[in-house]
Specification:
The chain has 2 helices and 6 strands; from the N terminus they run H-H-E-E-E-E-E-E. It is an alpha+beta fold. The longest helix has 15 residues.
Length: about 90
Amino acid sequence: MNKEKELARHRPAPAPGATRAARRLNDHHLRTCAGFYASNAAAGGGRYFGARVRAGKLEITPDFGETWQTVEDLAGAAFHDHNGRRIHL
């Protein structure tokens, strides 16, 4: 294996984009009809039912679109489903 490929294997993964994260969270909600949960302080706590992107930032809603909360640190945010399995953004 050449040196460049070896170095690339050990680099941390880039932070997910807000659009990709919103799409994955919404797809998960539609597939399971169970919402998703924020797993750490970066995303806040609680159960959420939708995601969108506004001004380049991910926003999530705990009440089907009445209010939206901005996820400031998308790289540090973690989400899981109702069974505790991580949702990979």
